[in-house]
Each structure stands twice: as C-alpha cells, then as structure tokens.
Design the sequence.
C-alpha cells in the first residue's frame, strides 16, 4: 500500500493524523476553558461529555488510532532519516531549520509521555494526587480534581513544561501538515507558518493559564 | 588529395529529402545487433544516443563528467534558431540557410547548411514535446527574440538558460533509453584512443576516471560528440574539462582535422582578474544594444576611476571606427577593436586587458528600472564576479575564445574519412564555416543528433557486418597497451613544473600569436616555439599519484599533452590560409578600413589536415566549396 | 566598488579539508594554508592555488568536482563552513568569491554527505542516484520525430514560467547535502512539478510521480521533514512549493489509481 510504504505516503499519514490531533487540541482547549467560568461550568461540560457514552469511546478510539500511527510513523521516519544521513558534518550551519523543526521527534516523544501521564491522572484517575468526589449537584467534581492536582507546584510545572513542548511541536508541525499534504504553495506557505505559530502561541497561553492561575492562587482559591 | 564531401547534387531544396530516400536502411530486427559508441553527452551526443537507442540500436555512451547532464552545452545562454517564421516577419528555411552561409563567411558546405535549416523546425517541435519550457507570450504561444546576424526574430529561448533546458531535454530522452536498457551510460569515463581495424573505426579505449581502469569498448561505429577545442588558449569561456583529446586521438589514427584555425572570440566576457584564472565568464552580447564601449584617450588616465574621466577624454572607439554600426559591430570586429585599444596601452583594469562597456547613457535615457528588467541577471553575475556595481560604474569587458568552428572533417553523412567514425556538433567542422552566428550552435548539436545521424548512420551500418571487431581483436589489445604505456610515461617524468604551468604557457603563446589577429610572423614564431614547450613538457612535467586511482592531475596532463600537439596544427592551418575570413583574421589581409579580406580565388576550400607523425608536417587535403545558391559576396558591416 | 587601480591586498587562510583516498577508505581532516589569495579569486581558484602548491611539494592535491565554473553545470559540490556552496544566496561554490572571507579565516571544506552519495575521493562524491531518479520517469516518452507542431498546444505564460522556475535546477545535489535527512525531495519535486505544469507532462503524470518517488527511496534518500534547508542552500533558489506540488501529484495519482483509471507503478512490483 503506497500510502503507508512510500516516502511521501508516510508523510501524508503524519500530516493527516497530526491534523486530527490538532483539531482535538483545539476542541480540548475550548472544553478546558470552561474552568474559567467556575466549577459549575466545567462540571456540567464534563457530565455532558460523559452522557454521550459510546460516542466518547468511539472518539477516544479514533484519536488513539491517530496517535498510534503518528507515533509509529514518526519514529520510523526518524530512524530512516538518520540512516539516510549517516555521515555528519564536522561543521554544520543551519540556514532555515529551527530548534522546533530539529527537535520534532523529541518534543513528540515528550508529548507522548505527557499524554500517558495526563490520561492516568485525569482520565483513569490513578495518580496519588487526584482528589475524587462529587459536587453539590451530584456530578463528578472535575473542578476540584483539577484544582487539587494543579495546586501542587511540581505538577503545575510539568503541565507548563508540556505546553511549552506542545508549542514547539506545533509551531513547526502545523505548517508541516499543509506542506506534506501538498496543500501549500509559495504564497500560502508563509501564511501557514504564521497561522501555525499563532495557534501554537494560543495553545501555550490558553492551556498554561490553567495551571499557572491555579498555582498563583488566582483561579480556584 | 581532393576530398569529396558527397553532398547530393541538384536543387538544394530537395537535397536532404532525396538523400534520405537514397540511403540504405537497417532492418528493425537487425538494429539491435549493431553497437554504437557515443562519446560525449552534450546536445549532439545525448540526442544521438537517445535517438539511436530508441531506434533499437545497442548504444554505449561515455562522458567525463559525473552525469550526462553536465556537458558544456548547458552553459549556452541566448537561444536556438529555427525557421518557424512564427512572428510572420519573413523568415524561411532559405533565409536561415542564407544567413548561416553568409554569417560563416562562405566557408561552409551549402547542402549541409540547407539540411540544418530544414530540420531546425523539427528541433523546436521535439523540444516542446519533451517539456522544454521555452518562453511564451500571453496567448500561450512560443516567443521569439532577434539575435546577431539576422534581420528576423527566429531565436527561441528559455530565459537566459536555453542551453541548459535543451540539454536537460536531451538528457531526459537519454535517461529514458538508459532505463529501457537500449543505452548503457558510462559517466566519469574519458576516451583516450580510437581503435581503427582494417581501416574502419571500430572501438575506443577509455579510462575509468574513478578506478583508473583502462579498457576497450568495441562496437560497429563510433560517434564523437566531444565539443570544441578553444581551451587551447588556456583563457576561454569553455568548461575546465573541455579538451581536444578525443578529436586528437582520432586525428592521430587517421581522421582529417578540418579548418582548425576557425575559432570564435566573444567580445563581451568579464576580463581575467589574475594569472591564476583560466575560466572566463561570458555575458550576453545583447548588452551592446544599450551599452557604449570606450577606453580613455590618454594612457595616463587608465588607472583613474572611470567616473572621474570626463566625457571629452573618453574614446568611444567603436563609434569612431565604425560610425554606422558603432557598438553593434559584429563579434570579430568588436573583439579586434578592443584588443587594439589595449595593445595601444589604453586598456583598463588588471593588466590593462579590458575596455569599458558603459550603460550610463541608456540608464539616463530609459531609467535604471528598464535596464534592470532587460539585463538584471547579467548585472548580478557581473557583480558576483567583480564586486562592482555595473549600474554605477561602467563594466569592464574583454574578448575571450568561446567556440570552435573547425573540427574533424566529415562528409554529408557526418562520417569522417575513416569509415565508421562519425563526428557531430561542435566537434565537426561542417556548417558554421569560418564564423558561427549566435543561437546556431544549439541548433546544430540537436540537428545532428536527433535528425541527421539516425538516418545517415544506417547508410554505413547497412554495408557492414555487425560485430566485426571484438574487444580481443589485436588492434584493441594494442590500443590498451599503448594507452597504458602513455599513462605510465606521463606519470614517470616526475619533473619540476606542473601541468597548469605548461598549459598557461601554451595558452599565452596561442592567444598572443594565434588569437584575434594573426600574422605570418606571429604564426611562424608560434610554430617554432610549440615543439620546445612540448619537449620540455615530456622532460619536466610533474604528475603525481598513480594511474590506478582518481587522479585529476593525470587527466589534465593527458589533455594538455594533446593541446601541445594540436596547437601546432592550428597555427599551421592559420599560416596556410592566406586570407582573413570569419574568426580567422590575418593582419596582412584586410581592407584599409580594417575589414577582413577574403580570397575566394585561392582559399574557397575546406582545409583538411592529415596526421603524418609528430615530427613531420601534416598533409593538406582540400575540399573545394561550391556556392550555387548563395553568391559569394563581401561581408560588410559598414 | 573595489579599487582596481591599487595592488590587491592578499589573504592567508587556514583550510581544514576532508581527505579520503577512496570510497571505502577512512577519511580525516587535514589542515592547509592558502597564501596570496586576493578578493578576486573565486573559491575554486583559491583551491587551484593550494593544489598547485601541493603538487609542487609532491603531495596529493585536493580532489574536487568542477567544470563550467559559471554556476550552471552543477558539477561543483563542496560544503564550506557547514553550508553547501558556501551560503551566498543563489551562488554555486564556483561563483563564490574570496571577498566573502577575511584574512586569517579558518575554512572547513567537506564533501556532500548523504547515504545516497558515496564519497569517491576527498570532496568528490558519486551523485549517480540523481540520474537514477530521472531515469525512473523524469521525461515525456515522446519519440524523436513524429511530434506535433510546437505551437499546436498553447501553454499559458503563467504555467510556462512556473515550469521554468522548476526546470532551473542544476542537479548539483546541494539540497541533499543540506538536508538533515539526506533527502532528494527538492530535486525530485522540481522535476515532477515542471512536467505537472505542462500539457506534455499530463499523460504520464501518475506513473512519473510513482516511479520517481520510488526510485528516490530505493536510492537511499531520506524523507522530508520540512526544514526547508534545501531551498536555503539551493544555488538556483528552487522553492519548496515544488515539494508540496510533488506531494499533491502523488496523492492525485494514488486516488486515480484507486478509482481504477490507471495502474500505479510500483504497486505489485518487486
């Protein structure tokens, strides 16, 4: 199957799976933002999500599938590329590559680790810091759980660090999606780059605001 | 001996069509039994190898570069002529034929030139079908520009890289045949000998430039498409690897060398910056459309910055000497005029070998923007090389050798006097006479490769049994041994001077004594001095390394050794031709106003020289030229 | 503007050069001194000067590829201080001039480094893999003769200019040398884009992209991770939009294959 075996097909797979995860990152940020509206909003949002039942599971499976391909192909491509360029230069000056573009595999693997941790913490809820309980309306109290964990400074720092990693990964990754999928040209490419960086900044600020504000005692006092 | 070019007789318009019918054919199923060796993969070689492979012949192609895409055809900037008459401005096959004969100063064979003009249109069709991105107008049709020596716009172009695009087109066709398996490609392989068995050219001996292996490739015919020899002047616009070696080896095996003295000097090159430099870069002649050439009137002004020299102290020498053509005088005249000013001590720049090409007046008249649109890439190139801004200070230019009209003698079928040896493109002498018009070199290379040799080679092969000579033939084995011995000899001298020093010395001598202006004295002196340089070379050259490895010193040494022999022939031909015509200017033969004075009475022939040995003068054979369709006339640009 | 009326100042430079006897031999850096270099020397003329000196001393001169020395043949190929062709915009190393350097500079010279380009000697590599990519489809399969009149198919000026932008590639391989992944995507993309823009290239478009992409992989080139180092190093300024175009052409070919309108070369082969 050319899509999975050819040099370009694999890049398209990376782009497509990346795109779906990017969409999730957007939706997830919107969902998270309900925390700024207080306990009631985020708990209501969480309950609504839970009530979708099989759809949630289908969605989760789909994303897991995307993640799986993205990770496998990311590793595979990195190994292939390392093999294609075995003799390193004694002196190598990069003209256009960025720290972000050169560290995609590492930021990617760090994000994978973070995703595992994040799921264990707030989805499977097995990490020791997690506070479980229901709110006044009998719903699961997401607000207290999140606030409880993120008040712990090291955990908040992990979250901020993860969001910096995400920023790096996406500041290169978003424009890459369009380039790899063949949707780019000389006029569009600079625009994709700007949009990509802008989105990456929005994610960084938006997501990091939650642990930072909680840690600073501004949110969830 | 009076040579016969075997050009068909009768009305010129139908010569090629009749000849195509009269030639013998090789049956399709027999074609694969014939092996054809193609040396060189420029426009002529690549197009020939691709076309012959496609016809079903078994082709082996060789080039010294690392890929067939790099031959020096790639450097041609201007364009390619064809008699399409798309602009409806009165062009025709006959007009292209006429312009080429006249431009060549009546020293080419009429029938060959007619055929070139006739197939020129097919070339454009072929290239477009290959995906060559020629310039187009807003309606999507092909665009044409005008070029020197013609009053019609018949030049097709692809920005300033026409040669590159045409070569890549031929290379793509060649690549397709390599993939199919009809052509086997041998890059980084240099031909070092031609094997002649029973009077026929049947094999070549080559050196693998990576491993140093010397081996023979036997076939049924050999095509030399190895370009020109103006690197004999050391200073030239040719690529560093261009050499006379393949032609010279063939010449030593009996192939006649025709008109070696016809060399073209291009007037608008960037001058040499220092002794270390041999490669000169050419800038399109079109600059002279808007530029004025001048030097200071007084010698003492030559070292001043040009902008500080007032108008009244400048000598616009072309306008002074040629009031009607002025700065648009033809290449040879403009080149010689520049040399005269420099010889007079009024040259500018390093070594006083340069004249100013000033676009100041055009910039004032049209604005810098217009000039930038027309010549921006040339100004950029000039600045990259000289670090001078041509918009602010006049550019410095100087003439440099850039094309060889002479080459191995061939008949109408492009076959040399040695049966089985064909010579295509710049390497043969056939169509440009004594002077080549702009945008005609590309046309000839592709005409020969795509549309002439596929027909004419059959005329030879049909008369010969395939596989007559194999690699273990005595002549082949002898050739390999000779080449090995020659290589060992080069490596064993172990003297004190480098190959480059010899090449530089030879080049200086050739440029000064046999360059833009030649005289009996200068040529005689060169002929007397060359053997001494050659002798010293074999006593005192230093070539390091071994023959069994990648050894660029050895490659250069071999090429220089051949130039050291060939240069003498070039001078002899120039001395023998007691007239001035085209690129050959003898100071004794000129009109009072400096125009070249041709002698049709005594020199209307092709001079084809036969090798007689290193210590013996070559023997001259003449092929008389007949002009039945274009009447002999003085070529005047007054 | 340089003042050519005064004698040129000369420079002395330290060269640290990769020396390697042959393809399977170990290589190492050696240090040389280039003396009496003026600002008007081109980079390769500077190397000529050094080599003349080495030859006189009876040492092995530095092998490097070069031919036309006017930036069009694509033969020259040296990484100068970590950048293929030395980093002057739209300039091959043969057109790079020594005025870009200062007296006393140290200059690193290395060959193109990529798995697909084995080193033959010193700074000389084997770029035959690029020829293989072209052989896999970088052409139209037209016969010599028997083609329609050149003006029978108009091509819009925009498409023709686009094709020319792509066709300017000189095949030097700097894109591969610059790519952290040793990929030939820019080289291949440019050729595919040239044909994709022209009507003459349409008939074989799917086979072309499939064949060339396949050849690229088989030759051992890497994949694109969109660093765009290739464009930055390209002496002809070939744009990475041609890589995107290749990707698009690849997907088009794939979907057309799925819909059964043609067979996808490479599928079912090997």
Sequence:
């Amino acid at each position: 199957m050319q899509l999975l075996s050819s040099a370009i097909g694999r890049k398209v797979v990376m782009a497509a799976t990346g795109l779906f995860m990017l969409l999730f990152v957007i939706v997830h940020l919107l969902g998270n933002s309900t925390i700024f509206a207080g306990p009631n909003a985020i708990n209501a949002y969480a309950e609504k999500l839970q009530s979708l039942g099989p759809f949630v599971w289908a969605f989760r499976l789909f994303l897991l599938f995307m993640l799986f391909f993205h990770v496998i192909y990311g590793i595979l491509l990195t190994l292939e590329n390392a093999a294609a360029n075995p003799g390193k230069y004694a002196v190598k000056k990069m003209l256009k590559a960025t720290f972000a573009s050169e560290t995609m595999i590492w930021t990617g693997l760090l994000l994978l680790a973070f995703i595992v941790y994040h799921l264990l913490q707030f989805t499977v809820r097995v990490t020791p810091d997690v506070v479980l309980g229901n709110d006044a309306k009998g719903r699961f109290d997401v607000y207290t759980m999140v606030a409880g964990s993120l008040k712990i400074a090291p955990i908040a720092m992990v979250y901020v660090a993860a969001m910096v990693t995400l920023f790096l990964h996406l500041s290169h990754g978003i424009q890459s999606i369009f380039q790899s999928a063949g949707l780019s040209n000389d006029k569009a490419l600079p625009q994709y780059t700007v949009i990509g960086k802008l989105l990456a900044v929005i994610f960084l600020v938006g997501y990091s605001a939650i642990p930072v504000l909680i840690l600073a005692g501004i949110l969830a006092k | 001996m009076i040579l016969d070019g075997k050009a068909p007789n009768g009305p010129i318009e139908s010569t090629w069509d009749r000849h195509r019918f009269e030639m013998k054919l090789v049956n399709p199923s027999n074609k694969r039994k014939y092996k054809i060796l193609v040396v060189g993969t420029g426009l002529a070689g690549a197009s020939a190898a691709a076309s012959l492979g496609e016809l079903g012949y078994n082709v082996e192609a060789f080039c010294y570069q690392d890929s067939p895409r790099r031959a020096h055809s790639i450097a041609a900037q201007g364009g390619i002529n064809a008699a399409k008459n798309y602009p409806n401005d009165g062009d025709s096959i006959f007009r292209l034929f006429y312009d080429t004969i006249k431009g060549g100063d009546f020293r080419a064979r009429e029938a060959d030139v007619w055929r070139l003009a006739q197939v020129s249109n097919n070339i454009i069709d072929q290239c477009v079908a290959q995906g060559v991105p020629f310039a187009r107008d807003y309606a999507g049709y092909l665009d044409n520009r005008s070029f020197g020596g013609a009053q019609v716009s018949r030049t097709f172009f692809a920005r300033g890289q026409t040669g590159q695009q045409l070569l890549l087109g031929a290379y793509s066709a060649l690549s397709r045949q390599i993939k199919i398996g009809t052509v086997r490609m041998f890059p980084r392989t240099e031909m070092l000998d031609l094997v002649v068995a029973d009077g026929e050219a049947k094999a070549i001996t080559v050196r693998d430039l990576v491993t140093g292996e010397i081996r023979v490739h036997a076939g049924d015919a050999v095509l030399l498409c190895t370009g020109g020899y103006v690197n004999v002047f050391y200073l030239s616009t040719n690529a560093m690897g261009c050499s006379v070696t393949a032609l010279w080896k063939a010449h030593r095996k009996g192939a006649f060398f025709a008109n070696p003295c016809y060399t073209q000097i291009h007037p608008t090159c960037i001058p040499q910056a220092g002794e270390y430099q041999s490669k000169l870069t050419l800038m399109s002649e079109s600059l002279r459309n808007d530029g004025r050439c001048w030097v200071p009137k007084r010698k003492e002004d030559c070292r001043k910055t040009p902008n500080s020299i007032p108008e009244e102290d400048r000598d616009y020498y072309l306008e002074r000497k040629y009031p009607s053509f002025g700065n648009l005088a033809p290449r040879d005249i403009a080149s010689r005029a520049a040399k005269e000013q420099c010889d007079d001590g009024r040259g500018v720049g390093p070594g006083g070998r340069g004249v100013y090409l000033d676009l100041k007046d055009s910039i004032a008249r049209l604005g810098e923007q217009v000039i930038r649109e027309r010549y921006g890439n040339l100004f950029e190139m000039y600045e990259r090389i000289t670090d001078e801004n041509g918009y602010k200070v006049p550019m410095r230019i100087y003439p440099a050798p850039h094309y060889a009209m002479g080459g191995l003698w061939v008949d109408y079928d492009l076959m040399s006097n040695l049966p089985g040896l064909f010579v295509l493109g710049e390497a043969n002498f056939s169509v440009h006479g004594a002077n080549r018009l702009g945008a005609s070199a590309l046309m000839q290379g592709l005409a020969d490769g795509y549309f002439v040799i596929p027909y004419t080679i059959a005329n030879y092969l049909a008369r010969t049994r395939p596989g007559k000579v194999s690699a273990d033939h005595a002549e082949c084995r002898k050739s390999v041994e000779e080449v090995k011995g020659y290589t060992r000899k080069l490596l064993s001298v172990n003297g004190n001077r480098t190959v480059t020093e010899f090449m530089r010395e030879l080049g200086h001598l050739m440029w000064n004594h046999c360059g833009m202006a030649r005289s009996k004295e200068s040529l005689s002196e060169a002929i007397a001095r060359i053997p001494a340089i050659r002798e010293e070379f074999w006593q005192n050259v230093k070539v390091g390394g071994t023959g069994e490895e990648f050894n660029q010193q050895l490659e250069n040494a071999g090429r220089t050794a051949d130039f050291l022999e060939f240069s003498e022939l070039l001078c002899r031909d120039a001395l023998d031709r007691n007239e001035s015509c085209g690129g050959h200017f003898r100071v004794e033969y000129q009109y009072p106003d400096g125009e070249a004075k041709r002698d049709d009475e005594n020199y209307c022939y092709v001079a084809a020289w036969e090798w007689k040995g290193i210590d013996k003068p070559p023997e001259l054979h003449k092929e008389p030229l007949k002009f039945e369709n274009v009447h002999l006339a003085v070529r005047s640009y007054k | 503007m340089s003042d050519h009326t005064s004698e040129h100042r000369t420079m002395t430079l330290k060269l640290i050069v990769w020396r390697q006897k042959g393809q399977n031999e170990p290589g190492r850096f050696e240090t040389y001194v280039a003396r009496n270099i003026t600002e008007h020397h081109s980079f390769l003329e500077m190397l000529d000067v050094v080599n003349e000196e080495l030859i006189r001393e009876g040492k092995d001169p530095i092998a490097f590829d070069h031919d036309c020395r006017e930036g069009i043949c694509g033969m020259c190929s040296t990484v100068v201080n970590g950048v293929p062709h030395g980093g002057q915009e739209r300039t091959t190393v043969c057109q790079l001039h020594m005025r870009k350097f200062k007296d006393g500079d140290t200059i690193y010279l290395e060959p193109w480094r990529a798995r697909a380009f084995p080193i033959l000697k010193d700074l000389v590599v084997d770029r035959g893999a690029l020829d293989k990519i072209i052989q896999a489809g970088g052409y139209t399969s037209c016969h010599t003769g028997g083609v329609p009149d050149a003006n029978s198919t108009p091509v819009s000026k925009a498409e023709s200019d686009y094709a020319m932008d792509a066709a300017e590639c000189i095949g030097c391989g700097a894109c591969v040398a610059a790519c952290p992944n040793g990929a030939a995507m820019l080289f291949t993309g440019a050729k595919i884009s040239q044909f994709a823009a022209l009507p003459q290239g349409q008939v074989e478009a799917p086979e072309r992209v499939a064949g060339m992409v396949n050849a690229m992989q088989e030759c051992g080139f890497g994949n694109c991770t969109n660093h765009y180092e290739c464009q930055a190093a390209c002496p002809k300024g070939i744009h990475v939009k041609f890589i995107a175009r290749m990707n698009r052409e690849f997907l088009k070919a794939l979907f057309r294959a799925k819909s059964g309108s043609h067979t996808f070369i490479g599928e079912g082969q090997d």
Observations:
- Chains B and A do not touch (no CB pair under 8 Å).
